[in-house]
Design a protein that fits this description.
Order of helices and strands: HHEHEHEEEEE
Radius of gyration: 15 Å
Number of helices: 4
Largest sheet: 7 strands, mixed
Structural class: alpha+beta
Shape: globular
Length: 140
Amino acid sequence: MADIDLQDLTDRYAAVWGEPDPERRRAAIRELWSADAVHALQPPQEMRQAAEGLGFDRLVLEARGHDALELRVTRAYEEFVAPGTFVFRSRGDAERLHDVVKFHWEMAPRAGGDVAGVGLEILILGADGRIVRDYQFIEG
């Protein structure tokens, strides 16, 4: 397993969601995630409740591979960062156990003020140090 600087990894992870340049965003995605990586998001409670109302007992959103990851990251950028409303940043609490890294990130108003959202990220790293599985939980 590659020697990983956890602060650097989590800072780069948070930064990719706020990268305005599409080419740099694409390159950062390829540096962070393996080609066949999976990003799985546990949807917010209101989405899970809507799915349950339709008869689905489980709702998980997934992006597989670089192209799908790029679409996912770009969509989040366009919705939350591009309008100038929010920034994403790591909370600096990363921990590692073998190939598993966990940390929290936050979405904060660009102009300052109270944090608008918090998530827990669980990353499974490959031998080269890139992400092979990415599990995201929105906590608040």
